[in-house]
Write a structure and sequence with these properties.
The structure is a single chain. The chain is mainly α. The protein is built from seven helices and no strands. Helix 1 runs antiparallel to helix 2 and helix 4 runs parallel beside helix 6. The longest helix is centred in the C-terminal third of the chain and has 20 residues. It starts with a helix and ends in a 7-residue tail after the last helix.
Amino acid sequence: RPLQSHISLTIAHLLKDADPNIRAVACISLSYTGNATTTTIDRIQKLLSDSDRLVRESACVALGKIQNPRSVSALLNVWRNDMISDVRSAALKALEIIGTREAHDGIKVVKTLQEEIKKLGVDDDQS
């Protein structure tokens, strides 16, 4: 366990690296350590608002792998609001993997709204 903690801490420091590629890889790597502490989840969730889309997408993937229900609200926000479709897709996939009632309810509401907008013939760039 001490080695796992040391590895997680070392990777966590890379989440603040200036290079977005390093941040993205560190994010995914951290999800593979098995260290799903509140601190780890909070660090990854902060990357959901990173300026780089690949980092945001990697954070979604990592949170999906960790499968902690605490991430649902943040992932719903990304799925509803991120400008990049790949990031939204990663958030949706993470929500489906986490699979809580909150995740399913949030997905259902947005999909229902999207269907209603299509019926009205309104263009929706967010779908």
